[in-house]
Write a structure and sequence with these properties.
The chain is mainly beta. Helix content is 2%, strand content 49%. The strands form 11 sheets. Strands 43, 44, 45, 46, 47 and 48 form a 6-stranded antiparallel β-sheet that branches. The two termini are 41 Å apart. The model is unreliable at 1-79 (pLDDT under 50).
């Protein structure tokens, strides 16, 4: 399975058994700086907010003759998963990943890689010879395939296979490299050279369904003639960042590349009339002046705010450590140093300096403190650059200490600094860890900080509004120990806030599952109200022999209508289940179930997916936009002998793809909606809730402005449409 993006914290992705790669002798993504180029490239995510969006679109199907909501694809004999079937299944070959397509859409690609195996006594080496990528749009319609050979130079040894030295840029452009109307696909390649420890990085650009040529290749000793794509451009270096500054009427991207994966970077605008990329800004990131701990903090950031593109370059003013004469010398933090934050606006092919902010970086007092680091972007990435309603800019700066003993870093503190370098606000101090909470419409952004209080020997989860910062009266504090008399009642660092009525609640996975009277293992999720008061604990029957389990805690899946369109709560749980008593043999399963209740004393399974004889073992579970970007969907992949298989289940499970009808328009049906009433001239109209209850009816027109806010289905004649009452 290829690597997915790194920077959306609640993307809801868990991989239990990704396809195993036989480790090559040399890793093409390593370099003198130990930078993983593939991971760096995956940091760009113009559409990353799609992954944390709430379920805002519901799908349903109605029996037109009876007006009843029915469940499609339900097999009475299949009680284990209620007969729910995927809407799309892709035989993905070696890999499946997502792409930022045009107009804010999410696209996908599958990949097949052809490598030559060289078997040695203790390992097998692979040399990549050919690659093939097939692209799909948001409806999973095939758009075309890019296929080419790896074109090695004389001093190049290999791109290590099976999947380690190649990646598709997760952004699709149309007019960045040339002026034609074809989609542009960029493939980044890391190549081992004949010089030990030196790698070469390049990017090859193709036009989707562009010009092709035939060539001859060897397959298992047999010559074959294949058709390959002709590159439209070859670039030295790896693309590290893509900034999407497009508007509704014009495509506008900026690419940042580095020729050696290291210190020197160039920001490019789209190609000119001669096809040459236009240099916008050159900058360097010194290994000794890199901000933060000089390993994990972003070296630079690009972003768009209010239609303006920006480049942020944070770094220390001088080398962080004092020079040392030998390997035996201790590394000593430089005194009197500062964190410098350079902010540039980008317009066309030029940059203009907006501000330079200097923040002193003194070492925290204490004999056990080796060094103190400061950085921008380590809390919420580009969300650490704040703009108020007047356009005034400030930064969230992270401070942490490296100690002589214990944890390598501790005491994470987060402050807001203005452009003059003044500390104007405290977000939180001395946190052990942190996690962003999902966005809830009508409420401030929020972050959870973990704090251990040495005075009362208690660990707390603190929920702080951003950018307001810590407020003793407003900050919600929840004790991690639900019951101090029971060591098993601990809240895990797996939490989110979930929309509930006109407010929200906090959900936590409990650290230790329980066991019911029938010896079933029970997952527990505890809920708290918005003020931090305890609400309830739900218990989910997972069956027996559970070795390990993790529940997905995210707003997008914990809405009662997210999985099945009713008022019951469902949970999505990944399970490692033992197959043989007393042994470590196990298998991965996906369980979606409702908790114990009066109606279901032992709980209720909605779906249970296990290894498939044809598809293989469960590999990855992801929450993605639904078909054609409508609602959400579960993407479930399997790894088998024939490669990756991907199943795509629209959510909610029990509803199908009926059109949505908006308040300012009509669909291709007999119904229309103006925000206050549903119209269907000359027809009887019935209004249903998504679970099938009739709430209103009439002929020609039915007023809906008086019914409670929510999602409803209108039926008239042979048409059925979903609409939302706000």
């Amino acid at each position: 399975m290829t690597k997915f993006r790194l920077l959306f914290a609640s993307a809801l992705m868990v991989a239990f058994s990704a396809s195993a790669n036989v480790a090559p002798a040399i890793d093409a993504t390593s370099s003198d700086l130990e930078i993983n180029a593939s991971q760096q490239m995956r940091r760009m995510a113009p559409n990353k907010s799609l992954y944390t969006s709430t379920v805002g679109s519901h799908l349903t199907v109605i029996d037109i003759e009876t007006g009843e909501v029915v469940t499609p694809n339900r097999a009475a004999s299949d009680d284990q998963n209620q007969g729910y079937e995927p809407a799309v299944t892709l035989n993905a070959g070696d890999m499946l990943a997502d792409l930022d397509g045009p107009n804010g859409e999410l696209w996908y690609y599958t990949g097949r890689l052809y490598s030559r195996a060289i078997k040695y006594q203790y390992y097998t080496d692979y040399i990549l010879e050919e690659y093939e990528f097939t692209l799909y749009n948001s409806k999973f319609e095939e758009l075309g395939t890019i296929r080419d050979l790896v074109r090695y130079a004389d001093d190049e040894v290999r791109v290590p296979g099976p999947q380690d030295g190649i990646d598709l840029l997760p952004t699709i452009t149309r007019n960045f490299f040339n002026g034609d109307d074809k989609y542009e696909v960029l493939v980044s390649i890391a190549v081992n050279t004949s010089t030990p420890g030196r790698n070469r990085y390049r990017s090859v650009v193709y036009s989707l369904n562009g010009e092709k040529e035939t060539t001859e290749v060897q397959r298992n000793g047999v010559a074959q003639t294949i058709e390959v794509d002709i590159p439209v451009k070859n670039m030295d270096g790896w693309v590290f960042d893509v900034l999407n500054a497009s508007t509704a009427t014009e495509e506008n991207y900026y690419f940042t590349t580095s020729p050696v994966v290291g210190y020197s970077y160039t920001l490019y605008a789209k190609a000119d009339a001669e096809g040459n990329l236009q240099r916008v800004h050159n900058f360097s990131v010194g290994s000794q002046t890199w901000q933060g701990d000089q390993e994990n903090s972003p070296s630079f950031m690009t972003f768009v705010h209010d239609g303006t593109a920006y480049l942020l370059l944070p770094h220390y003013r001088e080398d962080f450590f004092m020079p040392y004469g030998s390997a035996n010398d201790d590394m000593v933090m430089r005194e009197g140093n500062s964190l410098i934050i350079e902010l540039y606006s980008i317009e066309g092919t030029t940059t203009s300096q907006v501000a330079v902010t200097e923040i002193p970086n003194p070492k925290t007092e204490g004999s056990n403190v080796l060094a103190t680091f400061r950085s921008v972007g380590d809390l919420r990435y580009t969300g650490d650059i704040l703009f108020d309603n007047n356009g005034t800019i400030s930064y969230i700066v992270t401070k942490c200490d490296e100690l002589t003993t214990g944890d390598s870093t501790t005491g994470y503190c987060y402050y807001v600094y203005d452009l003059e370098g003044n500390k104007v606000k405290t977000i939180f101090e001395n946190a052990e860890n942190n996690m962003p909470m999902s966005s809830i419409e009508g409420f401030p952004e929020q972050h959870m900080f973990v704090f251990f209080d040495e005075v009362d020997d208690t660990r707390y989860y603190n929920f702080v509004n951003i950018p307001e910062g810590y407020d003793k009266k407003k900050t919600v504090k929840i004790d991690s120990d639900l019951d101090p008399t029971d060591d098993a009642d601990l809240l895990m660092f797996n939490a989110d806030r979930v929309k509930s009525g006109d407010s929200y609640k906090y959900a936590f996975e409990m650290r230790t599952p329980s066991v019911d009277e029938y010896d079933n293992d029970v997952m527990r999720i505890s809920w708290f109200n918005a003020d931090g008061s305890y609400d309830r604990t739900d218990e989910i029957n997972m069956g027996t022999a559970v070795h390990y389990a993790q529940v997905f805690i995210t707003n997008a899946l914990l809405s009662p209508e997210a999985i099945v369109s009713d008022s019951e709560q469902e949970y999505v749980i990944l399970i490692k289940r033992g197959l043989v008593s007393g042994e470590t043999v196990n298998q991965e399963e996906l369980l979606i179930a409702q908790p114990y209740s009066e109606a279901n004393p032992t709980g209720k399974n909605v779906m249970l997916l296990q290894p498939d004889e044809v598809k293989g073992n469960l590999a990855l579970i992801g929450l993605y936009p639904g078909l054609d970007m409508k609602g959400n969907a579960l993407l479930i992949t399997y790894n088998g002998v024939n490669g990756v298989t991907a199943d795509f289940y629209p959510l909610p499970f029990d509803l199908s793809s009926i059109e949505n009808i908006e308040a300012d328009g009509v669909t291709n049906s007999e119904l229309s909606y103006d925000g206050t009433a549903i119209y269907a001239e000359g027809l009887e109209i019935m209004i249903f809730t998504t679970d099938g209850r009739l709430v209103a009816n009439g002929k020609d027109a039915v007023a809906v402005d008086a019914i409670p806010a929510g999602v409803y289905v209108a039926v008239a004649g042979k048409s059925a449409n979903k609409f939302i009452v706000k």
